[in-house]
Write a structure and sequence with these properties.
heterodimer; A: about 120 residues; alpha+beta; B: about 375 residues; Rossmann fold; 2 domains; five-stranded parallel beta sheet; Hyd_form_HypD (chain B); HypD_1 (chain B); iron (chain B); HypD_2_sf (chain B)
Chain lengths: ~120, ~375
């Protein structure tokens, strides 16, 4: 119900005195009301919910967030234990039984496989 | 689609998970409020990838699930009338009322139509001036502005045969109710990102300070969830309890001012009953006096409603985070999506439905042969959005 997805504005018009747009969601196009984002322009992205654009998608924020994720672990890589990293890179357990692994942390174990989703039709 | 696949990147998920594992030193219980987040968590196995000390408690943020049985029964009653075209979002069709659902009303001859947007229902009203068109206006703060705009348009354009059956609910009073419960174990919240896209974060600092819980505004993709958890755990480990926005690409602190103004005009705050939970003060909206003419409950005097919840259904405890879905005796046996006892097993945001869709085989709830065919899916792989 709170499913809202980013879509790109293709064109803007008016219907019954209401600002409307055709919005593309990766190939699916919908008529979307722009009354809550009157400044939205053709080519911009917005978060759309049940036919209404509710918030502009801030691409700069998205980029910064992804960059932050990229940088996570950099310090660990720089100053962490190279033996442990080498073992982890090969997907192997800590190899030295007489010398416990220095940093507690998860091994690169594969995540459990789960039942696949049964596709639902969204309203 | 913009910024969806990027936020499902397994390599970045690993970095986030490593950071959480490196940060956590003791047990913490976080609640993800939104049912959409619950589905992401269970679908991708995020709860199983987190350190064992981090527990995710599923919250009541499934609007379909918390719509009171009495309101569902009123909808069924109104939808059964020959002069009515009843419009709804698709996820309400199989929600059980007392003994039947909207799907059944349709099969019995009722004119029930699924719409993508409430504006579609308004268009149906314009095209059918001799019939009453009722839209089922449920949902949280994300869905309320579209419904408010639709009622506003109906008034502006003078469409007298349109009305709204309203059962809107608000998140902050629900957080308050959860924290007030004597059995509450929640130490931090992942706030629902799209609710905050509309409302901003102004209602949360006071809650965070008074209950000493971090509240992290969180998105819906796997990396969004992990980042919400990472930030909440960081705060807890440091003894902090502030409001943080981990979904900045879709949430501004002030929310959407135009939507907030429309909500203020069309709705007024009221007490609201939540299915399985009970009445939460000031937790809902109803149409304000100016728009009362468009209130379906006033237009159709629905009487003689005798609600009856199945005794075996424990969805109320699930919605309050007191019970995991598979801990219910009826899960996967008496209660399945095909014959649900409660709304939590129906909705695309219900916690019971999430466990049934993605966990039932490993939980051993249902013999594999008795289930629809499924293919193995690895956590954190790309998933279709629409």
């Amino acid at each position: 119900m709170c499913l809202a997805v980013p879509g790109r504005v293709l064109d803007i018009g008016e219907k019954d005195g209401t600002r409307m747009a055709t919005v593309d969601f990766g190939g699916v196009q919908k008529e979307v009301c722009l009354e809550y984002l009157p400044d939205l322009q053709v080519g911009e992205y917005a978060i759309v919910h049940v036919g209404f654009a509710l918030q502009r998608l801030d691409e700069e924020s998205a980029r910064q967030t992804l960059e932050l994720f990229e940088q996570l672990g950099m310090l660990q890589e720089e100053f962490g234990d190279p033996w442990e990293q080498a073992a982890a890179a090969g997907g192997e357990p800590w190899p030295f039984a007489d010398d416990p692994a220095p940093v507690p942390g998860p091994g690169p174990e594969p995540a459990p496989a789960l039942a696949a989703p049964q596709e639902e039709v969204q309203p | 689609m913009k910024y969806i696949e990027e936020f499902q990147d397994p390599a970045l998920a690993r970095r986030l998970l490593d950071d959480i594992h490196a940060t956590v030193t003791r047990p913490w219980a976080l609640m993800e409020v939104c049912g959409g987040q619950t589905h992401t968590i269970i679908r991708h196995g995020i709860d199983q990838l987190l350190p064992s000390q981090v527990e995710l408690i599923h919250g009541p943020g499934c609007p379909v699930c918390v719509t009171p049985l009495e309101v569902i029964d009123k909808a069924l009653e109104i939808a059964s009338r020959p002069d009515v075209i009843f419009c709804s979002f698709g996820d309400m069709l199989r929600v059980p009322g007392t003994g039947r659902d909207l799907f059944q009303v349709r099969s019995e001859g009722g004119d029930v139509r699924v719409v993508y947007s409430p504006l579609d229902a308004l268009r149906i009203a314009q095209e059918n001036p001799k019939r009453q068109v009722v839209f089922f206006g449920i949902g949280f703060e994300t869905t309320a502005p579209p419904n408010a705009m639709t009622v506003h348009q109906a008034k502006k354009l003078g469409i007298p045969n349109f009305s709204l059956l309203v059962s809107h609910v608000r998140v902050p009073p629900a957080i308050e109710a959860i924290m007030q419960s004597p059995s509450c174990r929640v130490q931090g919240f992942l706030a629902a990102g799209h609710v905050c896209s509309v409302m901003g974060v102004r209602e949360y600092p006071e809650l965070a300070a008074r209950h000493r819980v971090p509240i992290v505004v969180t998105g819906f993709e796997p990396l969004d969830i992990l980042e919400g958890v990472r930030r909440a755990v960081r705060q807890l480990e440091r003894g902090e309890h502030t409001v943080d926005n981990a979904y900045a690409r879709a949430v501004r602190p002030e929310g959407n001012p135009a939507a907030l103004a429309m909500l203020e005009d069309v709705f007024e705050v009221t007490d609201r009953a939540w299915r399985g939970i009970g009445v939460i003060p000031d937790s809902g909206w109803r149409l304000s006096e100016r728009y009362r003419d468009f209130d379906a409950e006033h237009r159709f005097s629905v009487t003689g409603i005798n609600t009856r919840e199945p005794a075996e259904c424990r969805s109320g405890e699930v919605l309050q985070g007191l019970l995991k879905p598979h801990e219910c005796e009826a899960f996967g046996t008496l209660c399945t999506p095909r014959s649900p006892l409660g709304a939590t097993m129906v909705s695309s945001e219900g916690a019971c439905a999430a466990y049934y869709l993605y966990r039932r085989l490993e939980l051993g709830a249902v013999p594999a042969a008795a289930t629809a065919p499924t293919a193995a899916s690895a956590p954190l792989e790309a998933s279709p959005v629409v």
